[in-house]
Design brief:
Order of helices and strands: EEHEEH
Strand order of the largest sheet: 1-2
Number of strands: 4
Helix content: 10-25%
Strand content: 15-25%
Distance between the termini: 60 Å
CATH topology of the domain at 12-61: Pemi-like Protein 1, Chain: D
Largest sheet: 2 strands, antiparallel
CATH class of the domain at 12-61: Mainly Beta
Number of helices: 2
Shape: elongated
Length: about 80
C-alpha cells in the first residue's frame, strides 16, 4: 500500500486505514522506532512494573496461596551433587 505524507504543523504525518490498525491491534498510544532506515510502529506496551502493585495485592489476598520455595528444600545442600 502506498500513501502520501500530509502536513501537520511543522511535521508530516500519514493516515493509517482502520483495517490495518485493527489487524495490528493498535489503539491509542503507539511506540515508534527507526531500524535500518525503516520506521517501525507498534502498539505501545504497558510500562514495565506498571501493574505489579495490583498483581501482588491480588496474590496476597488469593485464597489458594502456593508456596514458591518448597518447604522440603535442603538448605544444607547435603543432597546436592557438585
Amino acid at each position: 500500500m502506498r500513501t502520501n505524507l500530509v502536513p501537520i504543523g511543522n511535521s508530516k504525518g500519514i493516515r493509517i486505514p482502520k483495517a490495518i490498525l485493527q489487524q495490528c491491534g493498535i489503539e491509542g498510544e503507539v511506540s515508534m522506532e527507526v531500524h535500518e532506515g525503516q520506521i517501525i510502529l507498534a502498539s505501545a506496551s504497558p510500562q514495565p512494573r506498571q501493574r505489579w502493585r495490583a498483581e501482588f495485592k491480588a496474590l496476597r489476598v488469593a485464597e489458594d496461596e502456593a508456596t514458591y520455595i518448597p518447604d522440603a528444600l535442603d538448605l544444607n545442600m547435603g543432597e546436592w551433587d557438585w
